[in-house]
Each structure stands twice: as structure tokens, then as C-alpha cells.
Specification:
Elements lengths: L19 E8 L9 E6 L2 E7 L6 H16 L1 H4 L9 H13 L12 E10 L6 E7 L3 E6 L2 E4 L6 H13 L7 H6 L8 E2 L9 E6 L5 E5 L1 H4 L4 H10 L3 H14 L6 E8 L1
Antiparallel strand pairs: 1-11, 2-3, 3-4, 4-5, 4-8, 5-9, 6-7, 6-10, 10-11
Length: about 270
């Protein structure tokens, strides 16, 4: 997985032959005064954005990013036959610019920001697949055959601490468990947030098979609901909307301290 694992200039194109059932839910949660999360579900495009906690106008940042991405991806046109392949880099760059424009020049340290994860259903000579992308710690996973596969890697200090622990476990030195336990959940990539320039998205491709389910969620969900429970909830739910609602409800029941958002998509 990486920035260059998918080339937007290749042949795959959005196709009207792909049909999906989907559902999504966002909730303010137990502690926050404002819901800074946002999601978009307009087949074949699915997005989740999490406005940066601690930054001003996080809700405006997530909503602005999704509005620009929806326009850049042209979901109505994308679903039609013969549509040109969406230039994701260009759409994400436009969204980042719009979010950056929300910042007050006198207060760059409190500039609004947002994370982003998304999935686009595409077809190719090799068959249909998901093109998945992320910036920050909102996450996309694939549930298939009773197993879960993370399609994104969090861009956060916590993930970096986990990575160091895994590397240490394979060496002669013991894992740095103390560092992992206290690592702050601070994102290292975002749209806006005073970062300047274009944040680098990661891309990955996964097969799109009938019956498989895709989960997109903010860290208010995956931070308190482990992978095994993500699998259980989506497999026990009769429809993606019920699954999305159950995931958000479970996150709240387990005391998430953040807004909670989930989108579930099933290829039919």
C-alpha cells in the first residue's frame, strides 16, 4: 500500500454495472459539544471525514472537504457509462485547498483540519475492485469470509508507536511497551490544520466481490471497537444501514470520547 500503488492514468473506470447497498450514521457521542464528523454515501463514492479535535471549526473542515470531493468526483457522472476516471489527486488537492482557506490568518495554530478516508467502486479488465484512500486516522476495512482486512494505515503518532513496537519485537531488544501505552493519538497527516501544501494520501486496491462488506469509520468507532467486533456486527446485521447503526451504538456504549461515524457498503 502506498501513494504509487495505484495510477489514476490506468484503464479502470467507474461502471454502472456495480451495484451496492449501503448505510451510514454519525453521532455526536457522549462528551463533545459539536459533531465534527461527516460522511458521504453516493455510489460509487463513499467518504468519511473527521474534523480535527482541538482545532477551530472542525465541523466546517470535514463538511467542506466532503463537499469539494463530491464535486470533484462528480458522483452523478461517475455512475454513468463512459465517464472518465476521476483524478483523485486533483480532487483531494482541491479539498485540501478549500479546508486551508477556512483558517484565520491571525491564528494559524488553530487552523481547521480534517482526516479523510474513502472508497471508489471501479471496474477493469481484471474485474471490479475498490480504490481506497486515506489521510489521517479515519479507517477503511474489508470484511470477507469471516475475516477483516485493514485497507488503510493510520497516519498518527499512536500508529508510529505501534510500528516501533512491532519492529522491536522482531529484534533482540524488547518492545517499547511504555511508549506504546502513552503514545498520543495525534494525526500526522490531515487536510488543513495549518500543515501547508498537499497532504500525501495512501492508496490501495481491493477486490470487489458480492457479499463482501466495506467499513469506513472515524476513530471514535475503531478506537473503542476492536476488529473482531467489527466483523461480528456487520455479519450479524441484515443490511448495511443496520450495521452502521449498530457500530455507532456499540462505540457509544463502550464510552467513546469522540464523535462516532460509520459507513458500511455491501456489493450486491
Amino acid at each position: 500500500m502506498g501513494r504509487h500503488s495505484y495510477d489514476p492514468g490506468q484503464e479502470p473506470r467507474p461502471t454502472p454495472r456495480l451495484r451496492v447497498a449501503h448505510g451510514g450514521l454519525t453521532d455526536i457521542g457522549l462528551l463533545r459539544a459539536v459533531n465534527e464528523d461527516a460522511f458521504l454515501a453516493e455510489p460509487p463514492v463513499f467518504l468519511v471525514a473527521d474534523g480535527m479535535g482541538g482545532h477551530a471549526d472542525g465541523a466546517a473542515a470535514s463538511a467542506t472537504a466532503l463537499h469539494r470531493l463530491a464535486a470533484g468526483m462528480r458522483p452523478g457522472a461517475v455512475a454513468g457509462a463512459g465517464a472518465d476516471l476521476v483524478d483523485l489527486d486533483r480532487a483531494i488537492a482541491s479539498a485540501a485547498a478549500d479546508v486551508a482557506a477556512l483558517a484565520a490568518p491571525a491564528s494559524p495554530l488553530t487552523a481547521p483540519g480534517t482526516t479523510l478516508t474513502g472508497a471508489l467502486a471501479l471496474d477493469s479488465p481484471d474485474g471490479p475492485h475498490w480504490l481506497v484512500f486515506n489521510i489521517g486516522d479515519s479507517r477503511t476495512c474489508l470484511v470477507a469470509d469471516g475475516e477483516i482486512r485493514r485497507l488503510t494505515r493510520d497516519h498518527s503518532l499512536l500508529q508510529e508507536a505501534r510500528d516501533r513496537g512491532e519492529r522491536d519485537a522482531g529484534s533482540s531488544d524488547p518492545p517499547d511497551a511504555d511508549a506504546l501505552a502513552v503514545a498520543p493519538n495525534v494525526v500526522t497527516r490531515a487536510l488543513g490544520a495549518g500543515g501547508g501544501g498537499l497532504p500525501e494520501p495512501d492508496y490501495t486496491v481491493a477486490p470487489l466481490r458480492r457479499g463482501d462488506r466495506l467499513i469506513l469509520c472515524s476513530d471514535g468507532v475503531h478506537g473503542v471497537v476492536p476488529d473482531r467486533d467489527l466483523v461480528r456486527v456487520v455479519e450479524d446485521s441484515t443490511h448495511p444501514q443496520a450495521a452502521a447503526g449498530a457500530l455507532v451504538d456499540l462505540a457509544i456504549a463502550r464510552g467513546t470520547q469522540d464523535n462516532a461515524t460509520a459507513v458500511v457498503v455491501e456489493a450486491t
